[in-house]
């Protein structure tokens, strides 16, 4: 008789595991944390993010693409300018709580 492997109710499927690990990967990079923290205040264009954080435009664009692929940020177009804002309230709250936790000495 073949043994059946029953899934535990809180076992995670492969897709969920991948998405969770990618979210933590996104939050493990200091530049992405700085960008998300800035976007938590209000939406910004790539130029505004680059100027505010003293980063190259290409660096900001690369990081925003990574964050957009994970649906952590979204954008709207106004003319030729893209304005980015955060998309995932849960992740942003987790980031905010982690920042607050880390600032308590």
From TrEMBL:
Gene3D superfamilies in alphabetical order: Winged helix-like DNA-binding domain superfamily/Winged helix DNA-binding domain
InterPro entries in UniProt: ArsR-like_HTH, HTH_ArsR_DNA-bd_dom, Metal_resp_trans_reg, WH-like_DNA-bd_sf, WH_DNA-bd_sf
Answer yes or no on keyword Transcription regulation: yes
Q: PROSITE patterns, per this entry?
A: HTH_ARSR_2
Using the record's annotation, list all stretches that form the HTH arsR-type domain. 12-105
Could you list this entry's UniProt keywords, alphabetically sorted. Answer: DNA-binding, Transcription, Transcription regulation
- Pfam family of this protein, just one? HTH_5
* Any one GO molecular function term: DNA-binding transcription factor activity
Q: Does the keyword Transcription apply?
A: yes
Q: What is this protein called?
A: ArsR family transcriptional regulator
Organism listed in the record: Ureibacillus yapensis
């Amino acid at each position: 008789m073949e043994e059946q492997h029953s899934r535990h109710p809180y076992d995670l499927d492969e897709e969920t595991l991948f998405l969770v690990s990618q979210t933590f990967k996104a939050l493990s990079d200091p530049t992405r944390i700085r960008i998300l923290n800035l976007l938590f205040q209000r939406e910004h264009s790539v130029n505004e993010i680059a100027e505010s954080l003293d980063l190259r435009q290409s660096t900001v664009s690369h990081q925003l693409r990574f964050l957009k692929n994970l649906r952590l940020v979204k954008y709207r177009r106004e003319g030729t300018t893209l304005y980015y804002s955060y998309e995932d309230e849960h992740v942003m709250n987790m980031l905010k709580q982690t920042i607050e936790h880390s600032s308590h000495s």
